[in-house]
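Recall the central idea of this unit: under ordinary conditions, the amino acid sequence of a chain determines the structure it adopts. In this exercise we apply that idea directly, starting from the sequence alone.
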Amino acid sequence: MAYFFVFVLLFQITSILIFFSSNKLTNNYNDSFQRFLLLNSISQKSTELYTLTRVYVLEQDEKNAELYFLEKTALQKEQRKLADVFHYAEETKMKNYQDLIDTFIHESELTMGFVLREDIENYTKHLEEARVSAGYIQELALELIDVELTAYQSFYKDFQVRNGYFVMFIVFLFLTTITLAVLFALWFANGITRPLDKLSSAAKEVARGDLIGEPVEIQSNDELRLLGDAFNHMRANIHELVREIKDQSELDQLLKEMELKHLQNQINPHFLFNTLNTISKMAYLENANATSRLIDSVAALLRHSLDEIDKEVTLKEELEIVEDYFRIQKTRFSERIQFVTKIDETCLAIEIPRLTLQPLVENAFIHGIESREEGGRITIQVKQTQNEVIVEVSDDGEGMSGVEIQRLLSLVERKEDHVGHSTGIGLTNVIRRLQLFYQKSDVVEIESEVGQWTTIRLFLPKDRSESYENLNC
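Accordingly, the structure predicted from this sequence is:
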């Protein structure tokens, strides 16, 4: 191991030296390339500036003038870079090049000025001077490029030599590394590959679903033995967890089926008595039309509650059942009860569990305002956000305490929750079915103030695909 680390250290030192040497050459190459680009850019911009000056002489409009000043600014910006890019900026050729650019810009500005004065003789003269200056800029740029190419030849030869040394080092490093790797692989093969083969075979068994295979036995006293023991414990824990999940899943399914069948068969006799009593009084007090509508509402409500409870319905269907329930209670209590709806019609196609809204409205009526002599108001509002449809059931009745709200949200159900309900479905049951339906716990929110008001808010996701994916997993 000591020899190995000595080799590694030598390789690293050599690599660092080669890196700095190559980096220096690369920087020199980049500087030379930048100088080429700058000279070429100045030549192009001087030609374009002369062309724009000539265009303005032929056609004096604001657009051509604006283009001229933009191009002149760009040329001056490139000129200022010369001192930074060319380290021999004080030499005669570079100084002449700078002066020539200044002269060219000055001649173009004079041309523009005399054009504005409509002095044909002078702007013609200075335009010609600008053309000549632009030609000199091209010629001098070629001379400077020639100087750069001469220096580049020496640089390129040096680069080739260093590149050859680097290739030799890479070959030497490759051969040495391969030799060391083979030696160390042979050295550690007997102590490492055999336990790893055992672990690999056991892992393949687990991948095939065999969680009751023979334990992996590793005789060494290093980390591989710890890994083998951990694998054995993991496989045993996974097997036990899978068994528990299957048992719990089966139990949950049975409980859900029993709960749904039980709820499906519940019809509260007290509600039927009150409703039928109301129907008989209506038949005595008025003509058969109102009585017929009331009977239709009762029939629709009973038919909806007796249908298969595990099937989804649209929000529109649930609201229609709520309207039937409103009609029944409005008939019973006349002006004591007011029902208000604020519905966003674009939300009504979303699917929800059967018997979701009517139990909430009935809960608001029975526990909120039925016992109040002055009556009250129940409001249903349907609105939407980008991802959810929000349904609010509000009343201005007795309200609930924080303890009662917490009891409902924690799904602790009491016997009196069902008393007087038309379907026998309490608020806690509605909350739980919504949680199972959407596979999320924060689907219901309750706000209330004792003696003032209560609002139950449902958050219904528009897209259930993600919930189903999580459920299938």
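Confidence is low (pLDDT under 50) at residues 415-420, 467-473.
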